[in-house]
Structure formats: structure tokens, C-alpha cells
Amino acid sequence: MVDTAFILNDSLLEKRQRAIDRGRRADARFMRTTQAMAIVVLAIFIGIIWTLLVGAWPALSIYGFSFLWTEAWNPVTESFGALAPIYGTLVTSAIAIVIAVPIGIGIAIFLTELCPRSLRRPVGIAVELLAGIPSIIYGIWGLFVLAPFLQQYVQPAVIDAFDGIPILSTLFAGPPFGIGIFTAGLILAIMILPFISSITRDVFEAVPPVLKEATYGLGATVWEVVWYVVLPYARSGVVGGVMLALGRALGETMAITFVIGNAHRVSASLFAPGTSISAAIANEFTEAVGDLYYSSLIALGLILFLVTFIVLAAAQYMLMRIERRAGGGTK
Amino acid sequence: MNLGLYARRRMRNGIFLGLSMLATAFGLGWLALILGSLFYEGFSRFDLSLFTQMTPPPGEDGGLLNPIFGSLIMTSLAVAVGTPIGILAGTYLAEHGRYTRLAFVVRFVNDILLSAPSIVIGLFIYVTIVLTMGHFSAFAGSAALAVIVIPVVLRTTENMLLLVPNTLREAAAALGASRAHIIARITWRAARAGIVTGMLLAVARISGETAPLLFTALNNQFWSTDLNAPMASLPIVIFQFAMSPYADWQALAWAGALLITLTVLALSIIARALISQPERR
């Protein structure tokens, strides 16, 4: 009897209803707040594209698409073209990828297949620490340590060795400056190495052990297991990791600004100084006088953003594919 | 048994294993080289005066007090603004809108922002804030850094919330807790270590960022606490001093570089220790 009286008590029922309503309202408010913050992220992204488009418009409307393949960059006569920076960005990134991909994959193989269990974590962490070092550190190190070393020991030897061989002698023509396109590419390679190796390691670890064990059971060597089983299985993940690293390399600024030499020209030699999109913006933006100069630099930024956007989107697509195959779920 | 084939396979295997070990040694070698030269070059100027004196004109003694202060201020401001946005947005992706179209788009865009060139973020803030206000300022610098903080925090928050077992949420819901209550009292708490890790990683990321500060906060040779005026920061001062022809400025740049690297490495090691779990599998 006491129980029924308790339940039927109107004021209690009302109180409970009010509590429930309060909870509902708080829920809705909370959910709307979080949703608004998610939209803020979207707004930042759209804002970036929008401001770059608006800022770049004066230059683009004057030069049109020929902006992309004009080499001239002359603030005095106000004629601007993006060819040299685009060339520098693409070539340094290409050098970085060529050097870092085999080494990064090698590290991943070492970590997943060869390394004693007790060493696995420390070595993995050490390689990842490379990724944490800020790019300005790579820049100052490249300028004061790597560039003089290359200038003194490596570049003269390479220039001599390739002298007289048709293509190589133009590619590695002197004089040895130390700084230049090649040095920038090498620094980039060191910087993206940890990205490649840690993503590759993760996708290698996602290969079902049964597949590897079955292959070992047939008498395969480690090399054969990696080459015929692990790599084909993990292919799209590895490609995704490489694209992600490429995206980083394309947009990297400070490390390159220190060592690329800042010369607005396209040279056949990799040892010659050049410039990249990011280095050109970093060096010249605060000094840009005149609307057209300023707008041309923003147009460079727009090009850079679009290119990295495409590369990163492709990387995500590749990584999503391997994630779905591994059974979904983000890590 | 074909012994020749066997020997060839063994040899190929040996070469390949040797190469992958060489690759690892190569990777670790760079780390050792960079840290080594940082200590070698930076340690001579790494003393108390670094933290107590202002940036000097060339040829005089000095320290890095004003850029250290500027970096601290701008980093704290950026984290204070960026972290709540990142955590709340990450909560939306993991809790409320896990499968909605908005969440899908935001997730995609966030991953792009995570790797977007930081110099472009500098351009964005220049056009939106510096041009509007009419001058460079520490505010603009912090805003640029905040744009970098948000995706890092969002990503780790979402991942860490997804790791919280659903049974916890269900148990709380069965006790009559509201959704907001569950998130604030149960899932955030369960994922706390991970979310703090995200913040630390974000701090590590922005404490060395140079490009977005170049034309937002600019630089300042003098002591300034005015957030509405240009402010010095460690990375910019390192950039300026390293590119200068003066030996004592270059030495200061090395000392600053050592300071930043030690900070970043300490932060990422602490972050790692926070989420360290027994080895997978």
C-alpha cells in the first residue's frame, strides 16, 4: 500500500518528469555544441580555400593558366610565374620519396620481421622521435652541418664521377654550392622517413599471421615471405603511407627554406640552388610590395594547397581501403 | 635436394636481411647525428643567461628571454582556444554523429588539415586577421597555431573515445543517466589520459612551428607583453639568427634549437608514457 501511494504521489511524478525534461534539454544543448564545433572545423577548411581563392584572384585573372608554366619572377617589372617554385617543390619531393621509400620500408620490415621483441619498442620509438623534431631544427642542421659536408666531400666527388656521362653529367653539374635542390630533397627524405616507416609497420602488422605462418611452413625464407605475401597484402596501405608522406614533403617549409638557396630559376642540375612554393612564400611574403606580387604569392599558396589536398585525399582513400579489409575500426 | 637453389635462396635472404638492418641503422643514425650536433653546438650557450636576458644586437651578450616568453604565451593561448574546440568536435564524431554524413565529411577534412602545409595556414590567418586588424599581432600568431592544434586534438579525442567500451555507456544509460551526463562523467573520464596525450602532442607540434608565425606574429626585438602587437617567438628568432652572418647570433640560434628539441622530445615521451599499454597481441 505504501508503494502505490509513493508511485501515485503527483508531486513526485512531476519532479521526475521535470528531471527527465531537464536531462533532455541539456542533452540537446550539449549535442548542438559539439555539432557546432565540428562545423567550425569544416568552416576553417572552407575558409582556407575561400581566402586563398580571393587573394589569388588578381594574379590569376591577369596571368590565367600561363601562371603555371611561366618561369619569370620579377617584382620590378611585375611579371610573375610559378614554374620555378612548382618545379622545386616537385623535384625536392621526388628526391625525398626516392630515398625515403626503400629505407622506410626496410625499417618496417626490420621492425616487424627481424627485430628481437625486446628491441622492437625502443627502436620504433626512436624512429618516431625523428618525426617529432620540428622542421626548423632540420633546417638549421641542414644549413650548418649537412650542406657544408655535402659541399666539401660528396658533391665534388659525384660531379667528378659523372663527368662526361651524357644525362648524369647535366643532372649533377657543378659547382658544388652545398645548398640547393638536392640538399633540400635529402633533408625532406630524413623528415618523411618516420612517417613512411611507422605507417608501413602498422599495415605490415595487420597482415594475418596465418598467411605468414603458412608460407614459412612451406619452407620460405624471410625474404620470400615479405616479398610474396606481406607486401602484396599490404600494398594499398604502403601506397597510402607513401602518399601521406608525399603530402608532408610537398608542404614542408622551414627545412627547405634554409637549404634550397632561394633562386627563382629552373636548372637542369640537381646541385643548383632553386626555390619551392613554400620557401618562396616564407621568404618573400612579408617583403612583397604591390598587389600583384602579393597576390601571386597567395596564388602559389593556393596551388600548394590544392596539390597537397589531392595527394592527401588519395592517401586517405588508400588507407581506408586497407582498414576496411583488416576488419574496420580506427586505431 | 637442389643444394644450389637452396644456397641461392639463403644468400638472397641474407642480403635482404642485411639491407633492412642497414636501413634501420641509417634511420637511427640521422637521429643520433642531429641530436649530437644540437648538443655539440647548442650546449656552449645553454646557460642561465639564455633564460634571463633579452635578444641582443649582434656582438653583444644576451639571451632568449623575450622569444621564450612569446612562445609560451602564444602556445598557451592557442592551446586554450584550440583544445576545447578539438575535444568537443571529436566528441561529436565519436559519440553523437558517429555515422552521420557531417561526421564523415568533418573526419575527412580534419585529416587533410592535420597534414596541410602550415605555411598555407599562415596565409589564411594573414588574410583573415592581420589584414582586418591592419597590423601583425600575437593574437594572429596564436590563431594560426590554434588552427594547427584543433585537428591534432580532434583526431586523438575521437580515437580515444572510440576505444571506450560501449558497455560502459550502456551501463550508465541503464541507470538513467542522460547522454550528456554519460559523456561528461563516463566516457571523457575513461578517455582522459588519451585526451591529455592529444593536448601534449599538439603542444609539441606547435612549439616548433615557424611558418605560420612568419607573417602573423612577425617578430619583436624587444620585451613585449602586448598581445595586440608583434611578438617574438623562439622558432622565428632561430630562423632570423641562424640566417644571419653573425657568429654569436648563430650560437644563440643553436641554443634555442636545442631548447625547442628538448621540450618537444620531453613532451612526446611523456605523451607516449601516458598511453603506454602492454604490447599489442
Topology:
The complex is a heterodimer of chains A (331) and B (281).
Chain A lengths: L1 H7 L1 H54 L9 E2 L4 E2 L2 H32 L2 H16 L2 H28 L3 H6 L9 H25 L3 H9 L4 H30 L2 H6 L17 H8 L6 H35 L6
Antiparallel strand pairs in A: 1-2
Helix pairs in contact in A: 2-12, 3-7, 3-9, 3-11, 4-7, 5-7, 7-9, 8-9, 9-12, 11-12
Chain B lengths: L2 H40 L6 H4 L12 H32 L4 H15 L2 H16 L4 H26 L2 H9 L4 H12 L1 H16 L3 H4 L19 H9 L4 H28 L7
Helix pairs in contact in B: 1-12, 3-6, 3-9, 3-11, 4-6, 5-6, 6-9, 7-8, 9-12, 11-12
Please explain how this structure is put together.
The complex is a heterodimer of chains A (331) and B (281). Chain A is mainly α and 331 residues long. Chain A has helices spanning 2-8, 10-63, 83-114, 117-132, 135-162, 166-171, 181-205, 209-217, 222-251, 254-259, 277-284, 291-325, and strands spanning 73-74, 79-80. A two-stranded antiparallel ribbon of chain A has the order 1-2. In chain A, strand 1 (73-74) and strand 2 (79-80) form a beta hairpin. In chain A, helix 2 packs across helix 12 (291-325) and helix 8 (209-217) packs antiparallel against helix 9 (222-251). The longest helix of chain A is centred in the N-terminal third of the chain and has 54 residues, at 10-63. Chain A is flat, with a radius of gyration of 27 Å. Chain A starts with a helix and ends in a 6-residue tail after the last helix. The relative contact order of chain A is 0.14. By secondary structure, chain B is mainly alpha-helical. Chain B is built from 12 helices and no strands. Chain B has helices at 3-42, 49-52, 65-96, 101-115, 118-133, 138-163, 166-174, 179-190, 192-207, 211-214, 234-242, 247-274. In chain B, helix 3 (65-96) crosses helix 9 (192-207), helix 7 (166-174) runs antiparallel to helix 8 (179-190) and helix 9 (192-207) runs antiparallel to helix 12 (247-274). The relative contact order of chain B is 0.14. Chains A and B meet through helix 2, helix 3, helix 4, helix 5 and helix 7 of A and helix 1, helix 3, helix 4, helix 5 and helix 6 of B.
